[in-house]
Amino acid sequence: MTPEQVAVVQRTAAMIEDDGDRFARAFYDHLFERRPSARCLFPPELDLQRSRLVEEILELVAAAADLPSFLERARELGRRHQAYGVHVDDYPFVGDALVAAVAVVAADQWNPEAEAAWRRTYVLISEAMLEGGQAGLFIPPA
């Protein structure tokens, strides 16, 4: 990510922080509309899950300027999600839901540069998560 993309993501992430519930609701609405099979990966009540989503996105964005910290956090997230049953083919739907939800809260601040920055951010997150998920599959010899 370029420093300019990091700045755009951090600026729009402030809007997520200000309107986290709206962001999270838009995220899950978009995800479940386009990937109904993902619904079974979540608890029936999403209040806590929405809060966790906002917290995790904000933490990742805060770490974006420090690549080793960012990658460590995303890899750990990938390990956890692999254990929850998330599959590789779920990731594109999550990325689309993330971008769509940011667009909702960013409103008039949303433009092609913001979309490109968030898509690039998600590519980095998902690649690191996939690495972490693969590491989570390692079974040490007995």
Overview of the molecule:
- There is one protein chain.
- With about 140 residues, this protein is mostly helical.
- The protein has a single domain (about 5-135), classed as Globin-like.
- It is about 75% helix and about 0% strand.
- It is globular and about 35 Å long.
- Mean pLDDT is about 90; it is low at about 140.
Question: What's the structural domain tally?
Answer: 1
**Tell me, what's the shape?**
globular
The rounded distance between the terminal residues' Cα atoms is: 41 Å
Give the class-level CATH name: Mainly Alpha
* SSE sequence, one letter per element: HHHHHH
Number of helices: 6
CATH homologous superfamily (4th level) name: Globins
What percent of the residues sit in helical stretches (DSSP H or I)? Answer: over 70%
Radius of gyration: 15 Å
CATH architectural arrangement: Orthogonal Bundle
Which fold name is given in CATH as the topology? Globin-like
Please summarize what this structure is.
The protein is mostly helical and 142 residues long.
Strand and helix map with partners:
Elements: H1 3-18, H2 20-34, H3 47-63, H4 67-84, H5 91-106, H6 112-136
Keyword list:
globular, mainly alpha, 142 residues, 75% helix, 0% strand, disordered C terminus, 6 helices, Globin-like
